[in-house]
Amino acid sequence: MLDLIIRNGKVFNPEKGFLDVEVGIKDGKIAEIGKNLSGAAEVLDASGNIVMPGVIDPHIHLGIFNDFAVECEHETRAALAGGVTTCGLFMGGDQSYLGQVGGLIDVIEAKSSVDMFMHLAIFTPDQMDEMEACYQEFGITSFKFYMAGVKGVFPNVSDGFILDGFKKIAKFGDNAIACVHCEDQSIIDRAFDEVSAQNPDGTLGDWAKTGPDIAEEEAIMRACYLAEKAGNRLYIVHISSKAGADRLAKIKKNEGAAVFGETTSAYLTVNKDGAFGLKGKMLPPLRDASDNDGLWEAVKNDTIDSLGTDNVSMTLEVKQEEKGMLGAMPGYPILQTHFPAMINEGYHKRGVDIEKIITKATVNPAKIFGLYPRKGIIAEGSDADIVILDLNLSRTVESKELFSYSDFSLFEGQDIKGWPRTVLKGGKVAYSDGKIVVEPGSGSFLKRKL
């Protein structure tokens, strides 16, 4: 006997499009897909809605400005309400990971409402030496390198260091991947010094000048060249500019690197002229409307493979917008509005195929990061992480009504059209019509295999 049947929705399959079928679920897995399924304890009517895999956000940060356990609990509930059922968590620092990751996994298992996998930032030779042990012990197969650091927080690493890391990842095989923050350190250092000297009390538009798009474009070229020479798979995180996306398109066409490009919902849906002002301070910076346009073109032409958030949760007290362009902290909470904002901007306003957006938010990151076919697809044997998406459901964003502990949103007061009605996590209804109905700790840590 099935536990649950989903009926009357348009079921999305990335290879076949939308299908008029029913989905049968048992013991947290998709057990049957077909017509006229019967024998279930519960039936869920998805009439008029899309039935799609749970969204995979491959790029979040937790525990930067608040206790990791607090953020793990609250922000993953915000994720659920936005249709995100799996997150890729980036962790950093200059200490050994072997003594830390086990404790973080315990917190995830106790507090998270979504499943999580982990990427580790590599800053030191000792951390690089630990990479294989981190895989053996924790099933971590993705590692991050910063071509540009964060001023006053952590440094960048050299191309020679990155090349050594890439070679190690290449030896792990095709299921391992290097993630890279692509900005040239010297270019942004010079730009920052110039802008801060001339206009230290500037706007978000002035902040954009501290991270010129040439710095991103040039670093993408270098990262792809190094990956081609080392032979590893490469994932370029948070591409923020049209110039960066255009350069990646040329590289994908003409070079030999196995490279994937990510952009974020913020770089697709807002820009430096937003009414939110310095609440939008981020690294890389929000740019021009023309960059929004260029990145959507890159989504449509498949230069961009994956859609994330780079979520950094914080409160207004931590954001310190009142300290101006230089004093305000970088980052913003965006997990709950991530997928709806892209539906609203991409599908409703720009006419981007809904299939394209769903594919890059689900099955593509699952394949890139070694989670497929467990995640990212509605198929027999896959985890029953499912979103019932109402393309016509419109809501006005009010931060006080979101599940994040943060008290602001880049979309504050905006009407966004296209939200989940219901979200299933592990075969159980986890979110329905504005309410989360599972307890913290319903998510799991995902170990991956080489």
UniProtKB/TrEMBL annotation:
Q: Which InterPro entries match?
A: Amidohydro-rel, Metal-dep_hydrolase_composite, Metal_Hydrolase, Metallo-dep_Hydrolases_sf
One matching Pfam family = Amidohydro_1
Q: Which Gene3D superfamilies match?
A: Metal-dependent hydrolases, Urease, subunit C, domain 1
Q: Print the keywords alphabetically.
A: Hydrolase
Amidohydrolase-related domain segment(s): 50-429
Q: Which GO terms describe its molecular function?
A: dihydropyrimidinase activity
Q: What is its EC number?
A: 3.5.2.2
**Needed co-factor(s):** Zn(2+)
GO cellular component terms attached to this protein's record: cytosol
Q: Which domain of life is it from?
A: Bacteria
Q: Which PANTHER family match?
A: COLLAPSIN RESPONSE MEDIATOR PROTEIN, HYDRANTOINASE/DIHYDROPYRIMIDINASE FAMILY MEMBER
Q: What is this protein called?
A: D-hydantoinase HyuA
Species name = Desulfotignum phosphitoxidans DSM 13687
Q: What is the lineage of its organism?
A: Bacteria, Pseudomonadati, Thermodesulfobacteriota, Desulfobacteria, Desulfobacterales
